[in-house]
Design a protein that fits this description.
57% helix; 0% strand; mainly alpha; 87 residues
Length: 87
């Protein structure tokens, strides 16, 4: 965001090639990634090996895959949900 304050228009290529300039949607995406990482760290058991049942494990893996796809296609999803910019 420092580059934006200096008047530059940096391009975010974090998850592949993009023509979108770095902006608020990228900050939101990065905050969501950080929140998920912190939640994952907080959810670890305090000690010992936990018993994980198959059904919840499959559900969690499926949700993680969906979240990964959503993060990887963040630019496309944001452009669908945000109103077009006036020029």
């Amino acid at each position: 965001m420092l580059a934006r304050r200096q008047g530059r228009q940096p391009i975010c290529n974090c998850f592949g090639s993009s023509a979108a300039a770095l902006g608020a949607r990228h900050v939101v995406r990065n905050c969501l990634i950080a929140a998920v990482a912190i939640a994952g760290l907080a959810a670890q058991p305090a000690g010992g090996q936990p018993h994980i049942a198959a059904a919840p494990a499959i559900l969690v893996v499926g949700l993680a895959l969906l979240a990964g796809v959503a993060i990887a296609t963040w630019e496309d999803l944001a452009s669908l949900l945000m109103p077009p910019r006036s020029r």
